[in-house]
Write a structure and sequence with these properties.
single chain, 143 residues, alpha/beta, Rossmann fold, five-stranded parallel beta sheet, 5 strands
């Protein structure tokens, strides 16, 4: 099965870079947004099939190319509910997608899990919510 193409929205570039590696080969992180502003401009453009370069410089599409195969958006725990709803609305206006959002209440000891722990939680969410090894239905799904 081909990897799921995803956009990753995370506030910490070093962690985002680690996640690009850790999610492969099941998920291909094609684009990374590290600010709300870039998410709001780059996600709709990418979903419209425009050639877009990631301001973060991260993701397999960081150099900029037209992509029409994005099937989900992964959001880290640094995103507020308002930010997530804004990103969802911007994406839905072009192409409704599932958003996998970090459930910060599941973080043990008040700290962030390791990149491997984050990967495992995302994969568990896909297994629980996804269809036949694919992406879940459009909407917000907590990991």
């Amino acid at each position: 099965m081909a990897p799921l193409a995803a956009i990753l929205c995370g506030r910490e570039p070093k962690l985002a870079e680690a996640m690009v590696r850790n999610l492969s080969p099941k998920i291909e992180v094609v684009h990374v947004c590290t600010t709300q502003e870039t998410a709001m401009s780059e996600i709709p453009a990418l979903l419209r099939g425009e050639t877009i370069t990631a301001a973060s410089g991260l993701g397999t599409n960081a150099e900029g190319a037209s992509r029409t195969d994005v099937s989900l958006i992964i959001l880290g725990g640094g995103n507020s509910k308002d930010n997530v709803e804004e990103i969802k609305a911007a994406a839905d206006a072009v192409k409704p997608l599932p958003l996998l959002w970090a459930d910060v209440s599941k973080m043990s000891g008040g700290g962030r899990p390791s990149p491997e722990g984050i990967r495992d939680r995302i994969f568990e969410c896909l297994e629980r919510e996804g269809k036949d090894g694919g992406a879940p239905a459009p909407g917000i799904h907590m990991w």
